[in-house]
Specification:
This protein is of the alpha+beta class. It has one domain: hypothetical protein PF0899 fold, CATH 3.30.2320. It has helices at about 1-25, 45-55; strands at about 30-40, 65-70, 75-80, 85, 100-105, 110-120. The strands form 2 sheets. It has a 3-stranded mixed β-sheet. A 3-stranded antiparallel β-sheet has the order 4-3-5, with no helix packed on it. Helix 2 links the parallel strand 1 and strand 2 (about 65-70). It is elongated. It starts with a helix and ends with a strand. Bound molecules: zinc ion.
Length: about 120
């Protein structure tokens, strides 16, 4: 449990550093909103990340910024029959042929999509 929190905390610090650098480069004074894309297979706990983001953003340009997280469904392609389907774990099983040779094609991403910067 502690490891999980630390994982989200280091992610949150990375995100704050990234968006602060971007806002600074754009000449902004304050970040009002950050939009993030998080795959359901990325292992990120959304609530923990929001909590850690608020803590990590203190005394930075991102202090008080709203963190909007878009969750992306996991999707896998069956290597045996070519079926494409929603998966909720990295060890997905093909619902069509019951095969386990599944290539995860979506759901592991974690990236900043956009941010809104206040220039005043
Ligand atoms: Zn299959």
């Amino acid at each position: 449990m502690q490891l999980q929190v630390m994982h989200e905390m280091s992610l949150a610090i990375n995100i704050v550093e990234l968006v602060s650098a971007k806002a600074q480069a754009a000449g902004g004074q304050r970040i009002t909103s950050v939009e993030l894309e998080a795959g359901k297979l990325s292992g990120v706990m959304v609530e923990a990340l929001v909590f850690c983001f608020e803590a990590a953003a203190r005394n930075t340009l991102a202090e008080g910024a709203f963190l909007e997280i878009r969750e992306i469904e996991g999707r896998g392609n069956c290597l045996a029959c070519g079926h494409s389907f929603i998966v909720d774990s990295l060890l997905g099983q093909c619902p069509q042929c019951d095969g386990y040779a599944v290539e995860i094609v979506q759901g592991r991403e974690l990236k900043v999509l956009s941010l809104i910067v206040d220039e005043e």
